[in-house]
């Protein structure tokens, strides 16, 4: 049953050192506020799962919180490389990070299998791909009906998934719209799910019947954090802050500049600061 | 005809390969520009798909990422990421996958994963994202990238996406039934695979380009077709469309 609570409490009650955690969002609706709260609370030895670990995982890896990354695209989308992840992988700074790398198709199938309660996912993929040779979790299986050889990967079952969404109703049902990515699967695959939302409305009556709604009984905790996905965006609320993604490429290029930026913008900041960050990016409703 | 850059010629030559009937899975960067120039000029009915789940999108500015809001706002429909990869890509609905590359070999194999050894990389690149299955599940694959000795190499460091492997019937031997790379558009030339060996062969050079220029910026010994055409220069409409698109994009990404 979803309980409404402040973000610091939601993170404290649902994330533990050593957990396998997914902070999902496929470019859209990235749960930045939740990730920053996790950074402030200083968790360690996390296994971080995400299809597209962009700025927030760059920050968490740079702060030394991750022992392992499971991912399918480790870039700053449209900008380039993730420089803190690179520094960890290439130089072990501030600690070495184990990586388990997949393709998007594999990760998407693995989340779906997790949501479906299956132990593994099967799909037509990885043919001729080098990842199959370096990742022991990529195996193959023969179709019992046709004999076709297909790829198999373990399902993703996070201890906890964090997502950001447009809104909740008063009961704690959550609405996600726009590029819905992998959010629904990531929530349903996890033991616990924490959602940050832009706002709470009375109810969802009268809306389109096929909207992507996560019932309140699939969610553990909800925190209201307007602007909580900045510099990503929330469809219908504010636009993607592309300039911040470009700026991150410079901030993250240098260890000292990174550390200073994190101190100023994350460690000393609060969830309430996000609202001001999206003020100029707000879209007309 | 006004002056144009090699990069503009590349984007425009790539855009010409696309038609109204195509359902195209668009990679970010150079492919995205080419696909949208096609849509804004000769192929207004082309279906552009980005891996974020946006089907039939028609952005006014080029997205910085594959999931910019502009893509969803202008799409016919937006589906979840598992649906995108399962029903639409794996289901065989997509005719063309349009990819870029950090490293490419003469058989159209692509590396966007690491420079150096996978476990001790010299440079850790972003990785494949959707590309490994785009390369095997789309009807055929077009590749576009600027030429350089670092980019076009004899041997890639990692097989992110399988092209024609070691050439010949290597795809069929791995049980891949799609055509794989059928076209490479660089800033200097248009290349097509040899029908038997599958090695990329120059079929057309852009205006002002010489064979020496193509060879000097390529890490393998270049094969030229028996008759090498000259790529028609950009038309005024193509050039204006591309430049307007780039100007709108730059303004938008700087936060206006």
UniProtKB/TrEMBL annotation, chain A:
- Pfam families, per this entry? CoA_trans (PF01144)
At the top level, the lineage of the source is Bacteria
**Entry-linked InterPro entries:** CoA_trans_fam_I, NagB/RpiA_transferase-like
Q: Provide the alphabetized UniProt keywords.
A: Transferase
Protein's name according to its UniProt entry: CoA transferase subunit A
Q: Which molecular function terms from Gene Ontology are attached?
A: CoA-transferase activity
Automatic annotation (TrEMBL), chain B:
- One short Pfam name that applies is CoA_trans
What the entry lists under InterPro entries is as follows: CoA_trans_fam_I, NagB/RpiA_transferase-like
In alphabetical order, the GO MF annotations are: CoA-transferase activity
Name listed for the protein in its UniProt record? CoA-transferase subunit beta
Q: Which organism is it from?
A: Chelativorans petroleitrophicus
């Amino acid at each position: 049953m979803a309980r409404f609570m402040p973000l610091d409490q939601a993170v404290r009650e649902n994330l533990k050192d050593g957990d396998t955690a997914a902070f999902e969002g496929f470019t859209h609706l990235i749960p930045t506020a939740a990730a920053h709260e996790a950074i402030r609370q200083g968790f360690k030895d996390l296994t971080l799962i995400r299809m597209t670990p962009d700025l927030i995982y760059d920050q968490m890896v740079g702060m030394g919180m991750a022992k392992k990354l499971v991912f399918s695209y480790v870039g700053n989308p449209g900008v380039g490389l993730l420089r803190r992840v690179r520094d960890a992988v290439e130089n072990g700074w501030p600690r070495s990070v184990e990586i388990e790398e997949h393709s998007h198709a594999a990760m998407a199938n693995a989340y779906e299998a997790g949501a479906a309660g299956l132990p593994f996912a099967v799909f037509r993929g990885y043919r001729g791909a080098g990842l199959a040779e370096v990742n022991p979790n990529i195996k193959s299986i023969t179709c019992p009906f046709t004999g076709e050889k297909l790829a198999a990967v373990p399902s993703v079952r996070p201890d906890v998934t964090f997502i950001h969404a447009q809104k909740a109703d008063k009961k704690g049902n959550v609405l996600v719209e726009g590029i819905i990515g992998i959010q629904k699967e990531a929530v349903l695959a996890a033991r616990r799910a924490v959602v940050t939302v832009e706002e709470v409305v009375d109810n969802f009556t009268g809306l389109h019947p096929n909207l992507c709604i996560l019932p309140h009984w699939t969610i553990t905790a909800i925190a209201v954090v307007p602007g909580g996905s900045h510099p990503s965006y929330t469809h219908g609320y504010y636009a993607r802050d592309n300039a911040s993604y470009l700026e991150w490429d410079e901030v993250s290029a240098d260890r000292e500049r990174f550390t200073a930026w994190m101190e100023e913008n994350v460690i000393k900041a609060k969830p309430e600061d996000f609202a001001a960050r999206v003020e100029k990016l707000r879209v007309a409703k | 005809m006004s002056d144009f850059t090699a990069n503009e010629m590349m984007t425009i030559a790539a855009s010409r390969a696309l038609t109204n009937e195509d359902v195209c899975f668009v990679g970010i960067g150079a492919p995205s520009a080419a696909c949208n120039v096609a849509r804004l000029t000769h192929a207004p009915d082309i279906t552009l798909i980005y891996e974020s789940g946006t089907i039939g999108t028609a952005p006014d500015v080029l997205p910085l990422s594959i999931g910019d809001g502009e893509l969803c706002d202008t799409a016919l429909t937006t589906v979840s990421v598992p649906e995108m990869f399962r029903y639409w890509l794996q289901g065989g609905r997509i005719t063309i996958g349009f990819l870029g590359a950090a490293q490419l070999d003469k058989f159209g194999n692509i590396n966007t994963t690491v420079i150096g050894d996978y476990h001790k990389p010299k440079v850790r690149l972003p990785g494949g994202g959707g590309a490994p299955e785009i390369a095997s599940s789309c009807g055929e694959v077009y590749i576009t990238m600027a030429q350089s000795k670092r980019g076009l190499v004899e041997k890639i460091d990692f097989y992110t996406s399988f092209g024609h492997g070691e050439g010949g019937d290597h795809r069929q031997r791995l049980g891949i039934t799609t055509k794989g790379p059928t076209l490479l558009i660089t800033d200097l030339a248009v290349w097509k695979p040899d029908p038997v060996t599958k090695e990329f062969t120059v079929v057309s050079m852009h205006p002002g380009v010489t064979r020496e220029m193509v060879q000097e910026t390529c890490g393998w010994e270049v094969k030229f077709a028996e008759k090498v055409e000259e790529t028609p220069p950009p038309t005024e409409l193509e050039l204006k469309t591309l430049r307007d698109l780039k100007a709108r994009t730059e303004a938008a990404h700087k936060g206006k």
